[in-house]
Each structure stands twice: as C-alpha cells, then as structure tokens.
Amino acid sequence: MEENSVLNEKYEVLPVLAVVCILILWSALLITKISDADFWWHLKFGQRILETRAMVSLTDHCYFFNNEGYVNTNWLFQVLSYGIYTIMGVNGIILFKLLTLFLAAIVVVLSPGKIMRKWYAIAFFFMVVLSASVRTHPRPEMFSVLFSVLYIFLLEKYRLSGKTAWLYPLPLIQLLWVNLHGFYFMGLLIIICYILDLFAGKYFKLKFIEPWGGNFKILGIAFIAVVAATMINPYGITIFQTVLGYVNVVYRQDNVFARMISELKPTLGIDTAHVPGLMYYKFLVIAVIATFFIRKKVVVSHVLLTLFFLGLSLSTIRGVTLFALVTFPFAAYNLTGIYRQGKYSDANALLKVFKIVSATAMILIILLSLLLTYNIVTNRYYTYLRIAKEFGFGVKPWTYIEGAGKFINTLPPGTRALNEYSTGGYLVWQNIQERKVFIAGFLPQVQEKVKTVYAQMLRAWKDGGMFDEFVEEYKIDVLVLDHTQRFTSGTVNRLWRHPAWKTVFIDETGIVFQKIKPLSGGKDSAWHNEKILDSLAEKVLERYKNVTPVKGRITEFISIPKDLANTGQLYYILGLYEKAIPLYEKTVYHAPYLHEFLFGIGYCKAMLGDYTGAIEYYQKTLRYTPDDPVVLGELDNCNAMLGYKN
After folding, report:
1. Neighbours of 52 (CB within 10 A)
2. How many CB atoms are closer than 10 A to CB 374?
3. Alpha helices for 114-267 (secondary structure H)
4. Would you tell me the crossing angle of helices 119-132 and 349-377 to the nearest 10 degrees?
5. How far apart are CA 338 and CA 535, in angstroms?
6. φ/ψ of residue 5, rounded to 5
7. Cα torsion at 202, 207, 212, 214 (round to 10°)?
8. Where are the beta strands (DSSP E) in 431-470?
9. pLDDT reported for residue 462
10. What does the alpha-carbon distance between residue 292 and residue 412 come to, in Å, rounded to a whole number?
11. Euclidean distance between CA atoms 416 and 479, whole angstroms
12. Are 590 and 550 in contact (CB under 8 A)?
C-alpha cells in the first residue's frame, strides 16, 4: 500500500509540472519581435480615433477609395493598442499579445472534465501549442481566440453542472468581442450549437447521442442577450454584413486576395517540414478520431463545433490557431473515455504499469518542452526551420521599409505613391495624412473596386506595358517598393533602366522611383541609379568591416546579416553579378548556414564565366540540400560548359 501511495504522489505531481513546462513553451512562442505587415495601420487607426473622437475615414489614407461598405470591427483593439503603445511602446504591444493568448491557454487548461490529468491529453496539448503558434501576431484575431475558448469553457461548465450562473458573462464577452474583431459571430454560432445539442439529446433520444439536463428557456434567454449585446457597436445591425464579407473573401474562387495573401490561403500551403505544420496535421487527425470514434456516445455540440473550426482551419491558415485551442477541450474530454470505459481497478496490475508508462511519457514531454523553449529563446528554432519570426522584444530588423517611408514624407503633400499591399500598413503609420497610400490591408476586400484594382496592379507588376498604362490611369508620381520581395524584382529591374523613372532613394529594404521626363536621346537612368546603390553597398560593407562572426553553440543561429543579404540580392536581381558577390560572401561569412547565398555566389560566378568557382559553391550548397534539383541542374550545366571549353 505504501509503495502505491508513493507512486500516486509522483503521478499527481508530474501532470502539473508537464503542463507548466508546456505553458512556458507557449509563452516563449508568443514573445516574438513585431514583423506583421498589418499591425501598423491598426496602430494608426487607433491614434486617429483617439485624436478625432470619430471612426476613421479611409479617404484620409487612400487616394482611390471611398468609405462605401467599410465597417471597422476592430476599432476597440486599435484604441487599446495605441494606448498601450503610447505608454510602453512596441514592447507593451508584445506583452499585450502575450497576456491575451496566454490567458486563452490557461482557460483551455482549466477546461471542465479534468482533462489535463492524463498523459495522452497533456501530450495532445503539447501538439496544440506548437500548431497554434502558426498565427500569433498582435492582431485583433487574438481576442477571437480568447473569447471562443471562454465561451466554450462557460457553456461546458453549464452543460456539466446545470448552473445558470455560468452563462451570465456571455453577453459582456459578446459586447467586447463585437467591437474588437470581426469574428464576433462565432459567439452566436457556439451558443446555437449547444442549443442544437440540447434539442438532439431531449427529442431524438438516439443511443449514440449523450444527453444532458440543460434548459431551453435559459439557453434561449442567453442567446437573445448575446444578440442584443452584438447590437451595441458603432454600426448597429449593419455589423452583420461583415459575416457575408468574410465568406466572400475566403470562399469565392475569383477573389484575388484569397489567392495572394498568405493568411487567407488554404492550410494545405503549410509546410509539413516545419514543426507547427506537422503538429497541426497530427492534431487534426487525433481530434477527429477523438470526437467521432472514441466514446460510445457523442456530444453533438462537440461534433458541430469541431466540424466548423476544422473547416475554418482547412480553408485559411489564419484559422489554425482557433481550431487548435478551441477544439482541444472537446478532443481531450473524449480521449479520457479510453480508460474510463475500461474495466481496470486499483488492484489490477495493469494499472500500475499504466502509471509507470504515463510518468515516463510526461517526463519526456517535460524535457522536450524545455529543450524547445531553449531553442526558441536562442532563435535556433526559427532559424533552422526558416520560420520568419525572431524571439525577443522590439521590431524585427530589416522587416519594414522605414527609410523609404521617411523619404516619402519629404515629398510635397498630394504626391501619389504606388506601393505594394504588404507595405501599405507601415506607410500609413509613418506618413502624415496628406500623403496617402495606394493600397493596404485596411481596404474592404469585399468591394468589387478594391478587388479589381488589386488584380490590375498584380498584372502590372509582371507586364511592362500594363504597368505604364496603370501609372497613367492612377496618375502615379512615385513608386515605393520593398525590394526584398520576390514579386517586385521584375518591376525593380525594369524601372532601374527606364528613361522615365529615376531612383531617388534606396536602402537595405526599400527603393523609391520617381517619374521624370524621359532623358534625351533615349538614354537610360541606370548610370545614376547604380551610383546610389554602390554608395549603399559601401556603407553596408563598412558596417561589417571589423565585425567577426558570432560563434558558439548557443548563439550561432542568432545573427542574420539581412542588410548584407538584401543589398547583395538587389545587385543580383539587377544582373550586377560581380558586385553582388562581395556582399554574398560577407553574408555567408557571418551566417554559413544560409545556403541559398552559397548558391547565389555560385550562380553569379557562372554568369560571369567562372565555372570552376561556381562548381565549388554549388558543391558547398549541396552539403545543406543534397537533393536540390535546381542546384544539381546548375552544377551539371557548369560541368558541361567546362567540358565544352576544354
């Protein structure tokens, strides 16, 4: 008996310790430097709302769009964010996100049904945390994650206890939700699923449905109260048009936004070579099995909500975090049925074996959580998996076109700048009201004009003739681009030598072209532009003149010389291969694991006719990617050229 008592004590301590370690891991995943494109226009809108005491007019920030159909469901988030920013800066925003999403995880852990006492539920939670890390930006949707898990927590408490008091907070949550994020309709949907669950259990009386003793009248009153709370917003009943707008953006096949914006792309685009993507698919399979096949009786609300959030996560990447955290309590609750339905007793020797296996599993989860936390804090995790995040506070270096934005502010008011979609939010934040952007994330994607113009702009990036027509149609004065983006490389290369465009600003991330009268004699402007780029390259190389690479097991993945890499890449896309090589060489000197720049050096040497040098760097690249068909193909080409020359 004494031996069993000691075993039970250890078994009770380990689940708590394992959950604490997973929550520490979750916290580490949430502490990332600001790198989101849309965060900045939210901040600007919060500033404008506080200054004017009125909703933002889009005509103040975009010169081809009006306010038709615009509903700002994020206004309260924007005001809160700007208030925090004025007091604590960017670090306050990161802490704000950490607190919100950490609280969501705590609510999940405390879900009713004692779901976190079993090792398999804790292992499942470990998967959930990693898959949920796909989307953790400081965006309004983080409140939809928090409020969704709160809704389900309260309704599950009511379902299992029958106490009406658990429903009282729902209208207040809905009041906040409808003014913080456009996914407020999920609150209504969640309650409807529980009403249908109660109806199915009471009236269908099927053997495979788990009944419960709720009250239709009470749930109906709660639903009406939640609907009434939804109406308390600056737009009244018209707020519901945002539901149709979301469906339009995500599910219409002809919507160019859904095809081009990463967060709106289907989840099949998640890289399964990355830990978050791999864990998402594993979690998805287990969640479906647990919800539909583990218990003899299913909970209808669990089934309906699992199907809804599963569909949401499969349709868009932005739905993954919601699916992971919201459906975990359902799956874990159903997983506990594995052993509850067995015939084990305390006297059974198998129970003792099971406890030992469970303890071993939880010790492994603890160690793995701590190991991953260590690799996240040292940034090895993000760098090795090529995830575009960086642990820490502040703004991720070389992510935004800060210098180009400041330059735009020096131009006369009314100057029309053409920018790409991803840079619009940051330019709105930087620029004063008189200097408007062409396009940004705040534009309502449901409006046909916005979709048409965006599709037209994407075609213009690729087609020189269409670009010239586009510039004339919208009377563009300057073009501001993030030259580190692949889809802008063709435009940068074309305008670099265009006689009617002059490079007036360039730095490590941004480039600004200004429309001018064509140079006499058809002479192109490349001679002028190259001098500006050479000056930038000298400055960047000088910055690293006396800097030695960061060494050591702990920090070898931290220092990524993006300024070197970006400047070298600009020379590369312009075909100035000889000038790209020194910058690429300096990049791999500081970060030898960036094998794409080893390949870049090889390609530059091949284009300059140095096939022997190219082969050397292609072989170095193959040490990291031995089966890369592109590298192997270029290597064969160089060998063939050497054979031809010999």
Report:
1. 11
2. 14
3. 119-132, 141-161, 170-180, 185-199, 216-230, 241-251, 256-260
4. 20
5. 68
6. -65, -45
7. -10
8. none
9. 77
10. 63
11. 9
12. yes
Distances 520 to 42, 500, 532, 638 between C-alpha atoms, Å: 45, 10, 21, 41
Chain mean position to CA 458: 22
What H or E segment, with its residue span, contains residue 512?
Answer: strand 510-515
In the chain, DSSP finds a helix count (H) and a strand count (E) of 27, 4
Burial profile 88-107: b = 16 or more Cβ within 10 angstroms, e = fewer = eebbbbbbbbbeebeebbeb
Identify residue 540 by its one-letter amino acid code: V
Tally Cβ neighbours within 10 Å of residue 590.
Answer: 17
Dihedral through CA 356, CA 358, CA 361, CA 362, nearest 10?
Answer: -110
**What span, in angstroms and rounded, lies between the C-alpha atoms of 95 and 123?**
27
Backbone phi, psi, residue 39, to 5°: -55, -40
Strand 478-482 relative to strand 417-419: parallel, antiparallel, unpaired? parallel
Determine the pLDDT at residue 434.
Answer: 66
Question: How far apart, in whole angstroms, are the C-alpha atoms of residue 597 and residue 621?
Answer: 9
CB 212 within 8 A of CB 201: yes
Q: For the sheet containing 501-506, what is the strand order?
A: 417-419, 478-482, 510-515, 501-506
Match 């309502």 to its residue by tokens: 444
**Is residue 404 within 8 Å of 480, Cβ to Cβ?**
yes
Phi then psi for residue 511, to 5 deg, are -145, 140
Cα Rg of the chain, angstroms: 28
**Nearest to 421, CA basis, from 440, 404, 434:** 440
Largest CA distance in the chain: 99
Pairwise CA distance, residues 197 & 211, whole Å: 8
> Which tokens is 192 given?
């409807």
- Residues in the chain predicted with pLDDT less than 50, given as ranges, are 1-10, 272, 339-347, 519-522, 552-558
The DSSP annotation for 150-195 comes to: HHHHHHHHHHHH--GGGGTTHHHHHHHHHHH-GGGHHHHHHHHHHH
pLDDT of 152: 94
Residue 499 CA to its chain's centroid (Å): 39
Structure tokens that stand for 581 in this block:
């090589």
Cβ count within 10 A of residue 114: 11
Q: Under a CB-based contact definition with an 8 Å cutoff, are residues 265 and 258 in contact?
A: yes
**Is the CA virtual torsion 634, 639, 640, 645 positive or negative?**
positive
Joined together, the tokens standing for residue 613 give 């040098």
100: Cβ contacts below 8 Å, ≥ 6 apart? 142, 143, 145, 146
